[in-house]
From TrEMBL:
It comes from the Bacteria. Gene3D superfamilies: Dihydrodipicolinate Reductase, domain 2, NAD(P)-binding Rossmann-like Domain. Pfam families: GFO_IDH_MocA, GFO_IDH_MocA_C3. Keywords: Oxidoreductase. Residues 130-256 form the GFO/IDH/MocA-like oxidoreductase domain. One of its GO terms (molecular function) is nucleotide binding. Residues 23-119 form the Gfo/Idh/MocA-like oxidoreductase N-terminal domain. This is Gfo/Idh/MocA family oxidoreductase. InterPro entries: Gfo/Idh/MocA-like_OxRdtase_N, Gfo/Idh/MocA_oxidrdct_glycsds, GFO_IDH_MocA-like_dom, NAD(P)-bd_dom_sf. PANTHER family: BCDNA.GH03377.
Length: 338
């Protein structure tokens, strides 16, 4: 049984990971820590477990085997490295860190201490992604030239029920978040497109920061890949009918995904709905637990985490300077520029 501590209720996905942990027969939630002690104490009371105010004391406890991290994004590097140096396995909300160099430091600590780190990139286990990836790998679409992914919701849209939108106000803090819609929600578009496109060469981004906000609430980036494919990444907190769209266009055909519905059209044929999709793979948390138990190699890997941050970092620079950013090669083995 994996004895786990929950670290922070800051990110909106805390409830998802808590529920996944509660539902997993191999996980036992034993402790709570939160940078907001009042919030953490109430959370621990709801769960019927102890609250620990001192993170170092919690991490030094040998009865705690692993941690689930949903802290502010700017705390990830410090918290994850401290956890790794204490011999704890780590499951973390995306993004891993706000710079490639920070990712490299995290992985150095993780690998030196021989602990398992999993970043939650859940769309990489979904049937629509698995089908599309298989089609690309088998050359069914021919030479892939364009990938467009849109992930958007209405978190900032003001309603009578939510006058400021349903996202917590701290999601607009540029220091805590390291950005706005693109760095967080846009991460899904980034890691999906990276899987299809391969190594990125350049990034150009436009972030919209409305009056009264300090971060982007909707954004678009284009990524040029060494393969010749172009990625179009769209995201936002301002989409009243927000939905997930993924398009893959190649010389022999096209795949379009709308939410979980998949259509495909090959050259010379008509559109067809694809109903025979692969089974969903194990969720990231399930993969994490199995990797700790041994004998299981997760499908979500270090390269996914590092290249996600590389695009995010370049997009932020592009948006702030108005320029086209050339990416240095990033080693998936070290997280460092090559």
């Amino acid at each position: 049984m994996l004895s786990v501590a929950l670290l922070s209720k800051w990110h909106v996905h805390w409830v998802d990971y808590m529920n996944e942990a509660l539902a997993n027969p191999n996980i036992s939630i034993q402790r709570v820590w939160d940078e907001d002690a009042h919030r953490g104490e109430a959370w621990a009371a709801d769960l019927g477990v102890a609250f620990e105010r001192d993170l170092d004391k919690l991490l030094a406890d040998p009865s705690i085997h692993a941690v689930i991290v949903t802290t502010p994004t700017n705390m990830h590097k410090d918290v994850i490295i401290r956890a790794a140096n204490s011999g704890k396995h780590i499951f973390t909300e995306k993004v891993l860190a706000l710079s490639v160099s920070d990712c490299a430091e995290i992985y150095e600590a993780v690998e030196r201490n021989n602990v398992q780190l999993m970043i939650s990139l859940p769309r990489l286990v979904e049937p629509y992604y698995l089908f599309a990836q298989e089609a690309v790998d088998q050359g069914i679409l021919g030479e892939l030239n364009t990938v467009r992914v849109r992930v958007a919701h209405d978190g900032t849209v003001r309603t009578s029920k939510n006058p400021h939108g349903w996202l917590p106000q701290h999601f607009y803090d540029p220091v805590l978040c390291g950005g706005g819609a693109f760095v967080d929600l846009g991460a899904h578009a980034i890691y999906l497109t990276n899987r299809f496109g391969g190594k990125a060469k350049t990034v150009t981004a436009n972030f919209v920061v409305p009056k009264g906000y300090e971060v982007d609430v909707h954004a678009v980036a284009t990524v040029e890949y060494e393969s010749g494919a172009i990625g179009i990444l769209e995201t936002g907190f301002t989409s009243g009918a927000g939905m997930f769209i993924m398009e893959l266009h190649g010389t022999k055909g096209t795949i379009v995904v709308e939410n979980h519905k998949v259509r495909m059209r090959l050259a010379g044929s008509e559109w067809e709905e694809v109903n025979d999709l692969p089974a969903r793979m194990l969720m990231p948390m399930e993969q994490w637990v199995m990797s700790i138990q041994g004998g299981y190699a997760p499908t979500i890997c270090k390269e996914d985490a590092i290249l996600l941050t590389a695009i995010n970092e370049a997009a932020a620079l592009s948006a702030s300077t108005g320029g086209r950013i050339k990416l240095q090669g990033v080693s998936a083995a070290t997280g460092k520029a090559i």
